[in-house]
Amino acid sequence: MNSHPYLRAYLAGVFVPSLVLPVILAGFVVLRLLLEAPFPIERFLVFPLALVPTLFGLWNMLYLWSSPRFQQPIGLHGAVLPLIGAPIGALVASCLGILEFGAKGVTYFQAVNVPYALLPVFILVAIGGYYLVWKYIVGSLNRVLGIA
What we know:
It is a single chain. The chain is mostly helical. It has one domain (5-144). It is 73% helix and 7% strand. Strands 1-2-3 form a three-stranded antiparallel sheet. The two termini are 12 Å apart.
């Protein structure tokens, strides 16, 4: 079963965010409509809903392409993704006016302030989460699809 390995790698990559993002969307809808959150969450959701599954799929295709050359563990490969995605996301959010960098921290939607001291904690949690997702879920999907 060696036909179209990159297509299978893409599909294995988009599996996890395609399941998780609708749950996050439901949480944001409840937050915005039922709890009447004062900031426009829907502006923040457009890019992740469109970009994250595609990014996961392309990242898994890159893993498939690079695995005969570099032999890195899939969990480590997945853990690198937030180190690339977070700065790009921050740049896009900053250009769109969603994110502002202040003297003491980062402000989302001119309503939520996050001190700079917490950002490394968020990055470490994201790295750990991505490592586990890629090692156990995407890696097992790659094995099931015969591309690992």
